[in-house]
Every structure is written in C-alpha cells, then in structure tokens.
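User: Could you go from structure to sequence for me? I need the amino acid at each position, not a summary. Structure tokens:
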C-alpha cells in the first residue's frame, strides 16, 4: 500500500473530528436564552404528543 493511500482516510477522519469539535463547541457556547427557548419548544412538543396520545410508530424496513 502506498503512503498516499493511507493519508487520505486519515485526513478525512481529522476533518470530521474538527467539524464535530466545532459543532460541539457551538452547542456548549449556546446562549442561555437560546437554550431556554429550545427547551420550551421541546417541552411544548412533548405536551402536544402527550395530549393527543400519539404513539411512536415502529420503524419498518419498507417491505409490504
């Protein structure tokens, strides 16, 4: 195996790691009002599901 063939997957993994790290830092540094708004939205969604008694559907493999 050539050295260049090994380097490409390594660079792809490093790029994915950098992307995920930046995304994580963006979530950690989210402002408190934004976090509170997201929490309120999710709580209202949950309340709506509980009120309507919506049952989660089982994922299917698409074969009928």
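Assistant: Here is the amino acid at each position, in order:
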């Amino acid at each position: 195996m050539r050295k260049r063939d090994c380097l490409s997957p390594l660079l792809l993994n490093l790029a994915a790691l950098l992307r995920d790290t930046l995304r994580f830092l963006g979530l950690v540094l989210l402002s408190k009002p934004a976090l509170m708004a997201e929490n309120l939205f999710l709580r209202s969604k949950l309340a709506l599901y509980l009120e309507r008694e919506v049952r989660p559907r089982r994922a299917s493999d698409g074969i009928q």
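One structural detail worth keeping in mind: Residues 3-52 form one domain.
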